[in-house]
Amino acid sequence: MKKSIAIKSLLATFFILFLAAAPVLAQKPPKKAEAKIQVSGNCGMCEKRINAALDVPGVIFSSWDRVSKTATVVYKPRKISEQKLHELIAGVGHDTNKVKADTTVYSKLPGCCLYRENDNTHWD
Amino acid sequence: MRIFLLATGLFLASQYVAAQDTLRGFVLEETGTGRLQPLVAANVVWLSTTVGTTTDVKGYFAIPAHPKTRQLQISYIGKKADTLQIERFTEVKVILKSQSKLQTVEIEADRAATYVSSLNPIKTQVMTEQELFKAACCNLSESFETNPAVDVSYTDAVSGVKQLQLLGLSGSYIQMQRENLPDVRALSANYGLTFIPGSWIDNIQLTRGIGSVVNGFESISGQMNVELKKTDSGDSVFVNGYQNQMGRSEINWYSRHQLNGSLSTAVLLHGNRQGMLNDVNNDGFLDIPTGNQINFHNRWKYDNGQGWIVQGGWALVRDRRLGGQNSFDPAIDRQQQGAYGTGFNVDRMEVYGKVGYVFPQRRYRSLGYMTQYVNHRTDAFFGRADYSGRQGSLYQNLIFQDIIGNTNHKYRAGFSLMTESYGETYKQFLFNRREVIPGAFYEYTYTGLRLQLVGGLRMDHHNLYGWLFTPRLHAKYDVTDQTALRLAAGRGYRVANVFAENMGGLISSRQVAILGNGAGAYGLEMEKAWNFGLSLTQAFKFRYRDASLNVDLHHTRFDQQVVVDYDYSPKQLLFYNLQGASYSTSFQTEVDLKPARRFDVRLAYRWLDVKTQYQTGFFTRPLVARHRVFMNLAYETRSKWMFDYTVSRIGTKRLPVTASNPEGFRFPEQSPAYWIMNGQVTKRFKRWDVYIGVENLADFRQTQLINAAEQPFSPFFDASMIWGPAIERMVYVGFRYRIPSGTD
Lengths: 124, 744
Known about the structure:
By secondary structure, chain A is of the alpha+beta class. Chain A has helices spanning 2-27, 44-53, 82-91, 103-107; strands at residues 33-38, 59-65, 70-75.
């Protein structure tokens, strides 16, 4: 009986501590995070463009897989937000699952990259 | 009958299974005229594995299915790499886009500037233009500043000629080729490196240890193949200019022209001039000889798209050098004046042709024939001694290629014929010889899922040395998808050209003595060696990026060697047949990393043990550093500024014995260890590159460069004892201008 009270109070203490810590955690995001972003595109040129767009301070590493249309971005949330990553990608003409690219930017892409018209991921 | 049917059924079933397990396809490129043509030797690899293959002359490949991945990566130098998702094992057709065709200037590296082809059982390092740009000067001898496997040093303190060293053995043990034709060999050894301007080079393929038997029996310490810029791909115009603070000026030109749908040509031009007199260390000798070179190469290619490919070209080199003491006057008779001079004149002419035919119904069956004629003349003097050399060489090689059953079993077989004549004079001695070497070869390649094998045999008959049997074996085993083990063992032979390969030793008062008694070249035996190699390639991730570790172990053992002996006496240079043991053991480990975006790091350590039985004992070969530590850093900013920095720690070397000389004319027994650094900054614009660089940044120099420099006609004079940098800190500037393909 005594024991269970002890456990309960311990749990309660943890709970309170957790509640206290939560806002602190929310204020201080982790040093490093990985984002998986759906990015439309077709070819190797698209891959280069997407990676070039993500070549900004705060981004440690980026890659884009043309088959799964997924960009993997390792970034520093204290320096750059995930939303900003989406905006950067859309800024060079590639739609993401959150931000659509501007039509005028998109229309200036080379022919093979026009993913809205044709999906020529590969030539087999 | 029933049993027969069953057997047939099983057979068919197994065939079917085999077909299911192998992916076949073509890799093609679009030419300037919009036609599709096969890409030969494109790399086809299962993504993030070391399992792969290369395409044949028809652009065809077959690769066994991989249990873990369905993503196939296809890459080719100068092309945009492509990755396919393989859903069905039908035949695929891949068209690789030219990198330079991209309108947007994105020259971001898809692959490392130097890479080891992960699929070839023969471990071959490919150095691309990107790597060669890291050190901008000047010709093939300077292309290895960022490669820790190859040591580059001056042959002597006067001629300004550099030599290569691989596995601790002199550069002449590397079989040198230019597009699979012999080059930089025989009478143009060492010096011939200066006849291949860096700006002409598309890429360099370097194999440590023995190479393929298809190219001959000459590779002992390694094999090198230099590919020049092509007639039908890449930039349409490329111009490079270079100037250094020592007064060396260079200009390079390359342009290619598509004359019609099937005919293309390229013109390559090079000129260099050294007009300024430099003597920074005030020893009375020019640091670099004055002179100039004109170098011309014109190549052609005909491809009718129906199986016939014909290539050919011709080349001319004229090189003039004058060096020695500042006070030397070439207008005065050399025997009459007190000043020491050296002169080096080369005139060289070459024509070559290649014909390839691919059987239209059998796309893996092809026949190739190549031939080359070289006429080389050297006229030189070293003080009061004269040397002249004449060489005429006719090379022919016929190669038939096919598969056995399926593309897991390939073979190449053929015949070669080398016919050469040499005439040399040194002082009053004459050396003439004629070599006729017919040969036949067979090479089998097995490509399994994890194991790949190349076994080669060749038999040659040398008119002076008799039958030469050359067995060679290369194996690669993929322990895991990230780990590859390679093994190589084989035989190599060569004829030593004692004068051309040891020209530096002639710039001394040493009396040359050739202690031969046979009927061969210079009365000496042919050099015969075994080479064994073991290597490990480990791919891993470092900070999310691809990185690699390479460990290489090589052992070369000579049965017969022409020993070059600087140690018998400081007044003599002896050449004789090996009596006893001679070997070289080399260990190298190299790590390539990308710690951050656009940042490349290469770290290496190399250890050598090279010993030979000399007349006076069994000891370490002189002028070979046992240890070398190497680091290369390359960083590129977002705004296309590129920074390259290379630093090497060269360990101590044993110097030739000079103990019997009077005091004041002796060298220490060992050279000190030293650091050498180079750096370069390049700014890239759309069509222009501008660069500035420094060689020997720390300005470390060998202080006692020439023995008895004040008395060049005394018996102690010697300019060949060079162990360190002979040139001061040197700044250079240059530019590159290119017109990308399809925009002119």
